[in-house]
Amino acid sequence: MRIHDFPEEIQRHLLPQPGGEMVYRCLGCQKETGIDRLLYTCPDCGGVFLLFNKGFKKVKEKGGRMWRRIFDYRRMLNETPLKGIFRYYEFIAPVIPLEHIVYLGEGHTPLVEANKSLRERVGMPFFFKNDGLNPSASFKDRGMACALSFLNHFVKSRNVKNLLAICASTGDTSASAALYGSYLEDLLRSAVLLPQGKVTVQQLSQPLGSGARVLEIPGVFDDCMKVVEFLAEKYPVALLNSKNSWRILGQESFSFEISQDFDYEVGDKVIVLPIGNAGNITAVMSGFLKFHEAGIIERLPKIVGVQSEHADPVYRYYLEGDEEKRVFVPVTVQPSVAQAAMIGNPVSMPRVIDLVKAYNSAAGEKRVFVVQVSEQEIMDAMMIANRNGNIACTQGGESMAGLAKAVREGYAAKGETGIVDSTAHMLKFISFQEMYFEDAFGPEFGVRARPELRNRPLLVRPEKVDRFPEPGRPLEGDEMKRFVEETAAEIAKILELEPEK
């Protein structure tokens, strides 16, 4: 619809103008710093940042009912910058002019209701939030759209030349950073650091295809992260990992979309997502808190973070019930099928601690939980989900297994509905499916294929056929007739078909 087709009283609210005052706020010393330079940690104490809009009070003045109307009308508006995550412009990064917003089709991914078989297996009704249907096939595009939009604005408004954007990755971040960076190839260059041999072939192909400089180093993701953090401290580069607070802002759109798709009634929802580097769970909590504070949603949903037993530092932290006795201790990770979550020292852990307290306080009760699942549970869940009409990656399997665990632990109750985050497209992790079909996991994974879930192609080559068609040598006449009849008969036998009477 065109802007003049909307009710007059709503028209002036639909196309936003830059406003507000955004600052970096350190979660360590609470110092606020302006956004006139690229920062990732506090210059004074080294703590991590969250971005705050000091003009948020004015945003809240519109009231929840008006914001719901604005977002619902914007859904019908044909304005490119507002088609993606920036439909919620005032709640993400309202300092970026619309003309500097980078939109590649990200956001507003579908909610797919689980079928009867999956509902019964998990123990409650639930939906998959298919974030694998983002442009680079993962949820990372939400944060990258915001981070690169800010970089686009930053570079153009300050006339910065030849900026290098860099990230460490287990696959998804590098694919997203390289894709969005290539869109701005006239303004910046892209480089990614990957742990050697720890990224699937499919994921490795993405940053290469987008033209990024791909550098592999020995070790795991945590080692790559240390290197890029050092580079960001010592060299003029733009860091695109979740330590970048603009990334967190973009990923908050996940919460906004769920709220809108359920008509802003989310108090009976249980949001389940893998923790990994903890940026996403941070963003999801922050997003729901903003909508709650603005009166857009009345009640906060439950949030369940999931970790594999092979990479579970956040789960271990919250095993201690006494908040005063909790001490965060990084862990040495073991090989995991949920590669994006195979992180032993999450960068965003300080954000998690801060936001869990704020979230539970705003809810008036404990609403954030962390569960641990096995590698076997993760792989089985992915295989079963995809046999029931879904496109879940291993992290999606981790989330589904986490929801089942939350039901068993009593964190999800009767009358509630689960929302399972499938963070990437299953085709990115097709190698793990192949390993499952071949029952080829090494002992370090602790995964054995269940016979009923294995699948492989079966060659049909009837013994009674003398010659088979080949490229450039087609069959004709009686030879083709015999080939068709004998092949069809053997297929009918395999599939247990009976001839029509």
Structural descriptors:
501 residues; alpha/beta; Rossmann fold; six-stranded mixed beta sheet; four-stranded parallel beta sheet; 39% helix; globular
SS elements, strand count: 13
Q: Spatial order of the strands in the main sheet?
A: 4-5-13-10-11-12
How many angstroms separate the termini? 56 Å
Low-confidence stretches: none
Number of domains: 3
CATH architecture of the largest domain: 3-Layer(aba) Sandwich
Shape field: globular
Q: How much β-strand is present in the residues?
A: 5-15%
Compute the average pLDDT: 94
Give the CATH topology of the largest domain: Rossmann fold
- Give a quick account of the main beta sheet: strands, pairing sense, barrel closure: 6 strands, mixed
Please report the number of helical segments.
Answer: 18
Task: Provide a compact summary of the structure.
The protein has 18 helices and 13 strands.
What would you say this structure looks like, in words?
With 501 residues, the protein is α/β, with parallel strands linked by helices. It has three domains: 111-134 and 252-453, Rossmann fold (3-Layer(aba) Sandwich); 139-246, 3-Layer(aba) Sandwich (Rossmann fold), CATH 3.40.50.1100; 457-501, no CATH class. The chain is 39% helix and 14% strand. The protein contains 18 helices and 13 strands. It has helices at 8-14, 56-60, 64-74, 89-92, 116-122, 140-158, 172-183, 201-209, 221-234, 245-251, 253-261, 279-293, 313-319, 349-363, 375-386, 394-409, 430-437, 477-494; strands spanning 22-26, 32-34, 49-53, 111-113, 126-130, 163-168, 188-195, 213-217, 237-239, 269-274, 302-308, 368-373, 417-422. The chain has a six-stranded mixed β-sheet, sandwiched between helices. The chain has a four-stranded parallel β-sheet with strand order 8-7-6-9. It has a three-stranded antiparallel β-sheet with strand order 2-1-3. Helix 6 packs parallel to helix 7 and helix 15 packs across helix 16. The radius of gyration is 25 Å and the shape is globular. It starts with 7 loop residues before the first helix and ends in a 7-residue tail after the last helix. The mean pLDDT is 94.
